[in-house]
Amino acid sequence: MKLAMQVNYAGDILETVEQVVTYEQAGLDIVFVAEAYGFDAVSILGYLAARTTRVELGPGILPIYSRTPALIAQTAAGLDYVSGGRAVLGLGASGPQVIEGWHGVAYDRPIARTRELIEICRKVWRRERLEADGIYQIPFPGGTGLGKALKLITQPVRPRLPIYLAAIGPANVALAAELAEGWLPIFYLPEQAETVWGEAVKKGLARRDGSLANFDVVAGGMLAIGDDVQQLLELARPHIALYVGGMGARTKNFYNDLFHRYGYGDLAEQIQELYLGGEREKAAACIPLDLLERLNLVGDSGFVEDRVRAHAGAGVGTLMVSPVGNDPLGSFRRLREIVDRL
User: Fold this and answer.
1) Quick check: pTM over 0.70?
2) What are phi and psi of 331, to 5 degrees?
3) Could you tell me if 130 and 151 are in contact, meaning their C-beta atoms sit under 8 angstroms apart?
4) How far apart are the first and last CA of the chain?
5) Residues 6 or more apart from 339 whose CB is under 8 A from it?
């Protein structure tokens, strides 16, 4: 099992980079850099490539609507070059709130766009002349009429880069299992993963090309290991309340839908009602403790080891953690020992 961390899109990025360097020395395997509507992920990844030597690096995620498919492919190939072959490409559709509200483009046909984008990226990395005749028309048939099919000028370090797809809806999860090297779910409950996502994963794997690597599931949560750390679970409440209650709109919230599928429909509606009504603290407070425990790795060594085993048993190959508490690095090192021992 690999260990991953995500660099948030808020906070002191330069300080975070120093932390990543330290965690790399402690056994961190992959770093994902989020991108919403703060600093872009690519600039930070380039800086991380210069400051690290071993850890894999990738956006987590680049929204598929924010750049052309060719530019996404170029960017990934460039990161792979400056990092010495350590790049992974995290992709996702994001949501209408960001895509239409920040990028100013229509949030349409996310599944079909993702499929075409992945195909285009792999064509670019193979240095094939780029042609597409779907949602993306390449060369563009309108305009001046002077466009022609081109291929990447530079030789990529690798002809195929790992693609990790962020997905929680059944159709998108099936697409990840079919086409991507890895899957980035959110709020992953390993005990219920088979019930909620099993059918979609199996459907995608049945269509998966044999040349693809094993399907990597990346999931986890907050991390703190100790005898008196349970109070740190309180840190997870605002995050869950934001996503389940306030992300997107009342009529379209993917994370709220996920909690319904988990069997927490009444709770999801309560959180959303309170959050959108301006009572954010009450929305966070109504999240039950047992759910917080199952969504994170916070407790003594035995408890965390049990959670690691539960994730491994549900197919998680990369454990994504956010160390918190008085000794986050110490907790990470203990987790590294647990994972290596299993």
Assistant:
1) yes
2) -65, -40
3) yes
4) 9
5) 1, 3, 308, 319
CA pair distance 250, 271, nearest whole angstrom: 11
pLDDT digits (tens, 9 = 90+) for 234-262: 999 999 999 999 987 788 899 999 999 99
Alpha helices for the chain (secondary structure H): 13-25, 41-51, 69-82, 96-98, 110-125, 170-179, 193-206, 236-241, 254-261, 265-276, 280-285, 289-294, 301-313, 328-341
Is residue 211 packed enough to be buried (19+ CB in 10 Å), middle (13-18) or exposed (0-12)?
exposed
- Token look-up 């002809």 returns 159
Q: For 246-254, which contacts have Cβ atoms below 8 Å and span 24 or more sequence positions?
A: 246/272, 246/275, 246/276, 246/280, 247/95, 247/97, 248/95, 248/96, 248/97, 249/96, 249/97, 250/276, 252/95, 252/96, 254/95, 254/168, 254/169
For tokens 């959108």, the residue is 276
pLDDT at position 97:
87
Contact between 64 and 37 under an 8 Å Cβ cutoff? The reply is: no
